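task queued by scheduler; priority normal; single chain, no ligands, no partner chains; default sampling; output format set to structure tokens
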Amino acid sequence: MKAPTRNSKLPKFSKNPAVGSDAEMQRLSLARVAWVLAAIFALAPTATVRAQHNTTVTVDGVASNLAVAFTGTNNLLQVIHGAVLTNTGTFTSSSAARNTAVAAGSGTRWTNTTGIYVGFQGAGNNLLVVSSGAHLVASWIRLGYDATGGNTNNGAIFTDPGTLVLLTGGDNSLGRGTSGNWLTVSNGAVVSNTFSSAALTLGASGTPSNNRALITGSNSQWISTGVNETKVGMYGQGNSLTIADGAFMSARLTLISDQAGSSDNLVTVADRGSILTNFFAVTVGVAGANGRLIVSNGGAVYVGNTGADAVGAGRSAGGSGSILVTGAESLLSTPGGVAVGSNGTLKGYGHLLVADGGIVQATRLESGYDGTGTISNRGGVFQFTTETPTISPLTAGSIVVTNGVIGFRAIHSAPVNLDGTSLTNLVFQGDNGFRLNAATNAAGLASYTFDSVANTGQATNYQRLILTGKNPSWRSTALTLGAGGELVATNTAGASIGAALTNLGTVRVVNGSVAFNGNVVNLGAWITDPMTNAFNGNYTVGPAATIVAAAGDVFAFGSNFVMQSTNRAFDMSGAIVYFGNTNYGITTGTTNHLFDLAGSGALDEGSNLPQLATNFSIGRLVIAADNRLMVTGQVGGGMTNALYVGTLDLSAWATNAANLTNTLQAAISLPNINLYYDGNDPNNAYLGQETFSLWGGGGSLIPVPEPEACALLLAGILVFVRRMRDRG
């Protein structure tokens, strides 16, 4: 398309004004030819631009009563540079093709008092663009309206922060009897639909196919309020709606493969932060075939209805649909129920699969009669928001949990034992988990052992306990993790274990904090990254057990730490070990603590620097103000223990020269073994790389390396250098 020139022909006007015919370029600029507009509006209330071919119409000032009907090809309407346009009846193509309408730029306002067709009959390939902060107001937008002339591949792009498209009435559609039309909302643009009975329909009549809408990018939104519906495949095949990369879309309800004869229509909600919210319902495969809803990679679908089939698939005669929720934290959520398959004589077919960390949150699960519906949990989560969820497999064995999780959210009496609950209607296979998400299990439990089905022989016995969310809490008298059992605390704050815990399996705590309020015996693996572990009872690490802590992980002790491990996988060299009576979830009030190394592999290797990283060392040892730590271990019998720390943190104490001796005697007791600290750590500068023997002939506080050792090492290096020089 050629750019307009100064010699562009001015439009001509008649009694029934029509601007433009076959001129190669025309320019209508209100800022420059105000007298032309005056002539237009003097002649008639509405000016109509009927462009034929290769014509540009530009509005960059203020205009009104302008109707545009492109009847040829390669024409352009542009509203730019903060222009304000009010008009009626815009056609970016009326029985024609390859025409474009653009509204662009901050301050640009285009108000269309009726609606906008993008491709009304004709050969298609027409385009509407609203970008760079422009605003467009219209009753509706219809892309690919009427298949006459082979109309196809019409598109719309709404993009950039500040861009707003406000739709005030009528039905919005992609593909009314036409195929291959597309819509993209991206990069923070917003579409607000305040009245339309059809918020958005893909495949509105006839046999349309492959019409597609994409809402993508953080802050990109399609917001619908009032009585309206999103229909993906009302008719036709292969129509799709995708919400991705943090975008948002809302509607009263969403229907996928709506009418008989429609098939293979798809809604996808993908990526963390992407949300589709429905006030009333989501139904997949209403009367059409093979409707699909996919929630993946952290996307979320919310349905506000409390009905038994707020989310449904294949519920009606002839309808079939499937729902897939897959990927960590992908979520399908409703305060009501999820129902798949038929519950009557007229059969539809539905399937739900939740997998690989995906979550279905509901109060009820129902699968249909006569094998018409199946619900499968394969490594996913069934999360309930009631203590008494309803599980209704109308065909026996049609709701199955395989290596999945049964979870409860925001309740205070979650049932662990299945007896007496409708959870007994589930079929369990493999190793399954029990999850408390900001929830607490039912009181009165004496003990529970989490272990693998290989050890218990019962898939209904949970293999792992999962704590997540805010303040989840486990309570029982005793809690055991068998050799194949696990405790997983992840993305949690204020989690707690109110039981005496024995771990023969694995404790894995990641990203958050957990308080252990009973005694803990660790005979297995304890893995953290990053995490705060608070122990209000005694914490004992057995001979073969390990702790693997990431740099900065906190182990806070309100009582005693008994470390007997000889397993070289033990690694707390980057961890913070805190002894105190408050902070980090410590509530004991106890100020006297014991760190006992007897029998462990933490041996006294002298003041050798490598021991700080390899000999069961501690990254930072913190003693709270007015607390006292006794460090003890085995002496004799062929071994002598010692404790190696990077930083000895007494920052809560007075450590100036006048008070240092009194502080060390008050904070630390070394009755029989040595405590080595990193003399090169600037946080230990207050110790002056000195050795302190203040505990009546017992252990000493010794820098690593000792100054004498450094001097000897330096002397040896000098001798070596001189000998090499003499040889040379």
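post-processing summary
- Residues 1-45, 709-725 have pLDDT under 50 and may be disordered.
- The chain has five helices and 65 strands.
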